[in-house]
Design goal:
Elements: H1 23-31, H2 39-53, H3 63-72, H4 77-93, H5 107-111, E1 115-117, E2 127-132, H6 143-157, H7 161-166, E3 168-173, H8 179-182, H9 187-199, E4 205-211, H10 215-224, H11 230-234, E5 236-240, H12 243-247, H13 268-275, H14 279-287
Parallel strand pairs: 2-3, 3-4, 4-5
Antiparallel strand pairs: 1-2
Helix pairs in contact: 2-3, 2-4, 3-4, 6-9
């Protein structure tokens, strides 16, 4: 594991679990339909709908848990209910991605810098999830491990009240993407990626920025196109190597140096180490079927 670098201002490898939202985020929540005078009524309406319709059986229905589904769908109870049903359908259809999965077994994705998540937020308060698929060696890391790590990060991110309100953003760095990678992207894999990032999780991905793409991506993207509706397409931005284009959406102050920013890069393993020490996070993950054991020294 690399030597731990000192954390700079604004960088924190732990969750923001404060329920009282900062003023700027509280204003976003208000614009998204969150009204403190109505939240209790809407949560109860949501809970009643779950019991009455019975299309899914959530493992809990407390206020805190239901709130993240409501926030993900702008406090529209019917849409939150549909999201919850899709979420549990995805979980039931893909138990191998979360049942008896020990997050510590996913360290290789951090060691190889395939996936990472920012320990800081962008100008809108959003976390940034980075994917560097060119670093992925399919012979070493099964594609399901990428799904497991992505699901884990989204589950953990959905615990943060701030992230529930403002959502997150993804950067897909496709430098080094080869035909060898493309062979592993089937329509079913594409559907699973869209389910995870767009349609099934109780935390919104507000934008996906594709950088350093080449002709191989154009081939792979033909698999995705039929699966995307117009709203999904509107969240996709293609920048190639044009950093100025990316900076129109994410201020360089909140990007790693690799993308013309000012922040150092931090490996995914930092998050795993910190999260494993949080009793709250461990308990939440165990409820979802994970085997949340602390890291062990090799």
């Amino acid at each position: 594991m690399p030597n731990r670098m000192p954390e700079v201002e604004g960088v924190k490898h732990s969750l923001d679990l404060e329920t009282e939202l900062p003023p700027k985020v509280a204003e976003v929540a208000r614009k998204n339909g969150e009204n403190p005078e109505k939240t209790c009524l809407l949560i109860q309406e949501f809970r009643d709908m779950i019991y009455e319709r019975g299309d899914c059986e959530p493992h809990r229905v407390d206020d805190e848990y239901l709130t993240k589904f409501l926030r993900a769908r702008f406090w529209k109870v019917e849409n939150a209910y549909k999201l919850m049903c899709r979420y549990y359908e995805f979980r039931n259809s893909n138990p191998e991605l979360h049942q008896n999965v020990n997050p510590m077994t996913l360290r290789s994705l951090g060691d190889d810098n395939i996936i990472s998540i920012s320990p800081y937020r962008d100008q809108e308060g959003r976390r940034i999830l980075f994917f560097r698929f060119g670093n992925w060696r399919p012979s070493k890391v099964p594609i399901n491990d990428i799904f497991k790590a992505t699901l884990l990060m989204l589950e953990v991110g959905s615990l943060e009240p701030m992230s529930q309100v403002v959502g997150g953003v993804g950067i897909m760095d496709l430098e080094g993407l080869s035909l060898n990678h493309a062979w592993h992207v089937s329509p079913s894999v594409a559907q699973k990626i869209i389910a995870l990032i767009v349609t099934c999780m109780p935390v919104r991905t507000t934008a996906i920025h594709v950088v350093n793409q080449g002709w191989v991506f154009d081939t792979v993207f033909q698999i995705f196109k039929p699966l995307l509706n117009e709203r999904m397409k509107e969240r996709l931005y293609f920048h190639g190597t044009d950093r100025a284009s990316l900076h129109k959406h994410i201020d360089p102050e909140f990007l790693p140096e690799r993308y013309g920013g000012t922040k150092p890069e931090y490996p995914y393993t930092y998050w795993l180490d910190h999260l494993s020490r949080s009793e709250y996070v461990v308990q939440e993950l165990e409820q979802l079927g994970y085997v949340a054991e602390p890291a062990t020294e090799e």
